[in-house]
Amino acid sequence: MTLAPPTPAAPRADARSAAGLRATARILARTDAHGTTRLPVLDGDGPFALRRLRAHSNQAEVCVVGAMSAPLGGDLLAIEATAEAGSVLRLTAAAATVALPGRTGEPARYDVRLTVGDGARLDWLPEPLISAAGSDLRMTTTVELAPTARLVLREEQVLGRSGEETGALRSRLTVRRAGRTLLDQETAYGPGVPGWDSPAVLGGHRAVGQLLFIGPEFGTKPAEVRLLGAAAGERSDGGAGQGVLAPLAGPGALATAVAPDALRLRRLLDEAAVAAAAE
């Protein structure tokens, strides 16, 4: 009897080619007849492994777990999450994301696209993004909100791992509510960016972040300006970092902070969250 040669194994869909990895994870939250948020779509891809966590009340929670090192230079990654009308979706991450250099010298792209329907709430609370030396990452976060939608969005960026220089990091955040732009900002740090480490920008700090709150309640009662950390006089040398919570020109509030490291940055943003909840 003649045996046929073994059939070559099909290549894995998430294998990284010379041009980089292409991967998109998709999440859809929808309420059922009892008002409980369900997840009819939970589709991880490439470096994004999606884990459903125990639900609380009518909320659904998903944790993004890194399945491989990413983003690397040349990668094109995306996460798309939709909270349909009336649903409540909380998205977290198991660990920090580390941008690393790739083999091609091309920049990596990481796009986050969030859509929130009427009466729905979406909390996007990932762990920090670390820009490692030699990396080049272009990141965009785009949010589409219905008129009565609510959003809590945290963004933390750490410029370089311990004892190393930062990579190149360019980030843009765009939020539209009822089709109109509510917030559109772009930041850039690292090699090739003039003045990014000057006293007018980071002043020697290596962690920068923001916490965004949007909801109809801010339209009737705007948030009050609140200084955070050293800006509020906690330490005169600024060693604990500093920041500010301020109202947007619309139904929302934005906390922005800088700090020496990720731990102290998180403390400032947590302080802002407590202040916003008390408004």
From TrEMBL:
Localization of this protein: Cytoplasm
Signal peptide annotation: none
Chief place where the protein resides: cytoplasm
Transmembrane segments: none
Similarity-based family: Belongs to the UreD family.
Self-association state and partner proteins as the record states: UreD, UreF and UreG form a complex that acts as a GTP-hydrolysis-dependent molecular chaperone, activating the urease apoprotein by helping to assemble the nickel containing metallocenter of UreC. The UreE protein probably delivers the nickel.
Task performed by this protein: Required for maturation of urease via the functional incorporation of the urease nickel metallocenter.
Record's protein name: Urease accessory protein UreD
Origin species: Streptomyces decoyicus
Gene: ureD
